[in-house]
């Protein structure tokens, strides 16, 4: 899944339940649930050679910038103090992908990360069909925006 729905989900959980012992593992767990849903992301095609690593990295950097902006405008804007729990929730929402990044982009996987990456791989369900792969992500973001607005 793209970083946007992962991070917004984590930030939303932290916003609703600002207790670190609850939102940190919950945001982390939601990542796996979301990856279980068939999805498309910028890494789709890396393992088959359909996408170059350099292209995926550039697209992901751009997406992370958009993700930070969305978290700011949805959760942080208008706040007089930094809402650290929201940012940490967003970070935990993308943490499994960050843990996997050295393997995917650098071909380097420290032994201590291998079990986490294997666990992540058990849930990962990518599709090359962009419409099918983006639809659940658009729905997720839409539901979060709706809930933020009306809760």
Beta-strand segment tally: 0
The main sheet comes to:
none
Shape: globular
Beta-strand content: under 5%
By DSSP (H or I, 4+ residues per run), the number of helices equals 6
- Helix/strand-derived category reads mainly alpha
Gyration radius, rounded: 15 Å
What is the rounded distance between the termini? Answer: 25 Å
Helix-strand sequence: HHHHHH
Helix content: over 70%
Describe the structure.
With 151 residues, this protein is an all-alpha fold. The protein has one domain. It has six helices and no strands. Helix 1 packs parallel to helix 3 and helix 2 crosses helix 4. The longest helix is centred in the middle third of the chain and has 24 residues. The two termini are 25 Å apart.
Key terms:
single chain, 151 residues, mainly alpha, 72% helix, globular
Quick rundown:
With 151 residues, this protein is mainly α.
């Amino acid at each position: 899944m793209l970083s946007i729905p992962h991070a917004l989900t984590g930030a939303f959980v932290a916003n609703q339940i600002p207790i670190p012992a609850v939102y940190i593992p919950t945001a982390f767990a939601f990542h796996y649930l979301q990856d279980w849903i068939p999805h498309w992301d910028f890494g789709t095609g890396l393992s088959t050679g359909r996408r170059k690593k350099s292209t995926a990295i550039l697209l992901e950097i751009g997406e992370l910038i958009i993700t930070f902006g969305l978290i700011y405008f949805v959760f942080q804007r208008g706040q007089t103090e930094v809402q650290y729990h929201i940012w940490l929730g967003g970070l935990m929402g993308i943490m499994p992908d960050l843990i996997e990044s050295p393997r995917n982009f650098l071909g380097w996987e420290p032994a201590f990360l291998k079990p986490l990456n294997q666990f992540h791989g058990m849930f990962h369900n990518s599709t090359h069909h962009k419409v099918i792969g983006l639809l659940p992500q658009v729905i997720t973001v839409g539901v979060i925006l709706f809930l933020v607005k009306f809760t």
